[in-house]
Write a structure and sequence with these properties.
Layout (H helix, E strand, L loop, with lengths): L1 H22 L2 H7 L6 H22 L3 H22 L4 H55 L2
Helix pairs in contact: 1-3, 1-5, 2-3, 3-5, 4-5
Length: 146
């Protein structure tokens, strides 16, 4: 039962990690947003499309704190920029939360990979533990028959 829950969590984290590899390539586009006004809408659309996917897989794998951390970091950043700059500098008001988003995805990718490694190690430990238990039962059954 526990192994199937680990596999379920690992499955969702692996899907998220796979997409994060492609999502992070758009962080290169982020650098172009400073030079090209056309890159900003593309980056925003990519982020807006990725957020529901990210939240779903984090929720399904039980990573509620990661979701909360994301929303808190985005809200604090956005509100701080609005309070400091107002709406006069709309491009900056949009770029800084977007930068925080892409920074968060970089951190998330590292944490997701670490979590997947930990889950794989735990599954391997459970598998070895089960094999040793089965070997011990087989060995004991040989003596119980006599």
């Amino acid at each position: 039962m526990e192994t199937s829950l680990l596999s379920f969590e690992k499955n969702h984290l692996q899907k998220l990690a796979k997409v994060l590899n492609y999502e992070l390539s758009s962080s290169i586009l982020f650098a172009f947003a400073f030079f090209s006004p056309a890159a900003l809408p593309v980056l925003m659309i990519a982020a807006l499309l990725f957020i529901p996917f990210m939240v779903y897989h984090l929720y399904m794998s039980g990573k509620i704190r990661w979701i909360a951390g994301f929303f808190i970091s985005e809200m604090i950043t956005f509100l701080a920029i609005l309070l400091i700059l107002g709406t006069a500098y709309l491009k900056v008001t949009l770029l800084i939360p977007l930068a925080v988003f892409y920074f968060y995805t970089i951190l998330l990718k590292m944490h997701v990979n670490e979590s997947i490694s930990a889950l794989k190690a735990r599954e391997e430990y459970e598998r070895i533990k089960l094999m040793k238990k089965m070997e011990m039962e087989t060995w004991q059954n040989q003596f119980d028959k006599n």
